[in-house]
Amino acid sequence: MDLQQYKAEDFILNDSFVRYCLRSNEKDVLFWEDWLERYPHKQEEAAKAREWLFRLGLRITPDEKEAEFGKLKAAIAVADTPVKRISWKRITRIAAAVALPLAAATWWLATHRTAASKEDAKSYTLFKAGDSLRRHVMLADGSLVVLNAHSTLKVPANYNGQQRDLILEGEALFEVAKAEGKPFTVYTGNLQVQALGTAFKLRAYHYDEQAAVTLVEGKVRVAQETAVAELIPGEQLTTGKAHARFVKNKFDPEKEKAWRSGRLVFHNASPDEIAATLGYWYGINVKVITRKNKPIRFNGVFNNKPLNEVLAAVCFVNGLQSVTKNDTLFVQPISK
């Protein structure tokens, strides 16, 4: 069939177009980008097909495409949900700074207050990041927060008054605006991180065994129970979530730089590396299961892509599917 006669149904059943959507073959990517630029009247149908692919994508294989596409169309019809047009060239700018804070004993005694007591005393504005994308929050003082997926930030109504206190569940990057006499403090559980004019990253998802503070620039103070510490740029502090167990390490600045810019790279990644990278990138507990007689490796580069698109590529290339159970994402062989 002439490509100019293609409808969304035809695009999604074309192997070259699927490889283009998954960015798994450079030749196909170049071909379709050029073709769609030359025939803009087909961009809407192609966009529709791409949207359908990523709704369906985690189970799609060459042998199953016809049957699965039929299921997809039926599901869409039953749900009566219109397919939204997407712009696959849209690139969300994601930037942030990375670091984690420490605190001196005197500061701890002067500022120690639990997150629970603070919640009782104040009203909050709640910011949530979705299942697979980060969210940018600009605070009243000009500080920038980049919430990772599956994260929540609570901002008190009196934020930027005499002090700047925040409560975090999950992970976020903080670029802190300087404000003389207004300490910037982030609370997660019984851990407190204070920073003045700095950039840091704090991670404490509910499924993580440890909390982590990573400092890219500036200076931070970290306090937990009676333990206190200070970090310098390039240092990361990990600790227990319930009780202080401070351990300092160096971190890979290039890895954090890539995270901040939204550039996700897999280079000959093993199943364990895929799971660790997805968990680090999207704030979700991931387990990759493979057949013993079929080891897998994965290569790919993704710029500011949501989890479903990255998963679709990983699964399509390796004949896998994804299933979420009890807050854990399982990437596993396709059921027979």
UniProtKB/TrEMBL annotation:
<dbReference type="Pfam" id="PF16344">
    <property type="entry name" value="FecR_C"/>
</dbReference>
<dbReference type="InterPro" id="IPR032508">
    <property type="entry name" value="FecR_C"/>
</dbReference>
<dbReference type="GO" id="GO:0016989">
    <property type="term" value="F:sigma factor antagonist activity"/>
</dbReference>
<protein>
    <submittedName>
        <fullName>DUF4974 domain-containing protein</fullName>
    </submittedName>
</protein>
<feature type="domain" description="Protein FecR C-terminal">
    <location>
        <begin position="263"/>
        <end position="330"/>
    </location>
</feature>
<dbReference type="InterPro" id="IPR006860">
    <property type="entry name" value="FecR"/>
</dbReference>
<feature type="domain" description="FecR protein">
    <location>
        <begin position="130"/>
        <end position="221"/>
    </location>
</feature>
<dbReference type="InterPro" id="IPR012373">
    <property type="entry name" value="Ferrdict_sens_TM"/>
</dbReference>
<dbReference type="Pfam" id="PF04773">
    <property type="entry name" value="FecR"/>
</dbReference>
